[in-house]
Model the fold of this input.
Amino acid sequence: MSRPAVLLTGVGKRYDIVSSFARLTFTIAVDPNPFAPARYAAHLCATAPPFGEEGYLRRLEELCERHGVGAVLPLTDLDIELLAEARAEGRLPAFVPSPEVARATYDKYLAHLELERRGFPSPPTALPDGDLSSLRYPVVVKPRKGSGARSVHLARSPQEARFFVDYLEGRSHFGERPAALPSHLNDDVRAPAREPVMVQTALDGEELAIDCLGDRRGRCLNAIPRRMLQSRGGESIKGTVIADRELVELGKEVVEAFEICGPATIQLFRDPQLGLRITDFNPRFGGAFPAPAYAALPGATYPELIVRMAAGEEVEPHPGRFRAPISFSRYYWQLQLDERLRPTGRDLVEGGPPPPRACENGEG
Done:
């Protein structure tokens, strides 16, 4: 059976994910930033209009038709809903959930409501105009549509929570907010954009995640739990895959309740008082992509299963079939680019990543 191409959007620095697909089949990486390193792990890096602009989906359709793409996957939250709508309309072979689920999971407060509505455990949560004194403290004040642990603040009292709410929503009573610093400065020190926020009980205990994969019918093919040992910028950089039957079953139930097509990452705590509580739910590959990649049985990594499904193969569900314990520790690497932003293939040490194949329009 021939292998169709795969197209990945918003690839950023996820060189590991792009290169995993590139080892299996012809892979196209789309990112508007020519410095995005993961572009250069693909066979072809292509340009497209920014998310949401006129022509973005048409450009993806054109690439899919020209290169025989059988699977489109987002590596960022920003275009999941767009791809979900295109999938529902039959325009793109996107591995994403329904538009309604994509919309709900992008808004963390809606995700909280949907989890509770379907009977899944979520921490006590309130909107800023609710009764903040009714929550267990400390709490976290965070953007409803944030990612990467951006603008998340710990508050130890209702007064502190109100302060951070006012700051993030631009309702400060202490005068004008500081202007945003220049864009070249680190995101951590720039003033946050004004945006809606939510307030959620801060959980204690073991921090966990479940990396899942659903097929086109929303069946859970696998659910691989891990212990989160260290995170940076909202991404897990150290962790251990664990054999935890309760988490496997929870991951399977969530995937099938939401009819997830494609990868999904569920983040949660095992709080000493509240028990398991889901704090985040993203229908895409998570930062700890290496965990399920290392733990999967031979031939059953998530990229391999996606390529098989893109080729029309029926993959049988096998939740709980993986190797554990297996740990991972992520680290940084780099690419040298010439004056035309083309990788030179030169590395600092032997054994670095190989040079890319090609970029469209002579870019990169």
Summary: Residues 204-329 form a domain with the D-amino Acid Aminotransferase; Chain A, domain 1 fold (CATH 3.30.470.20). Residues 174-178, 187-191 have pLDDT under 50 and may be disordered. The longest helix spans residues 245-258.
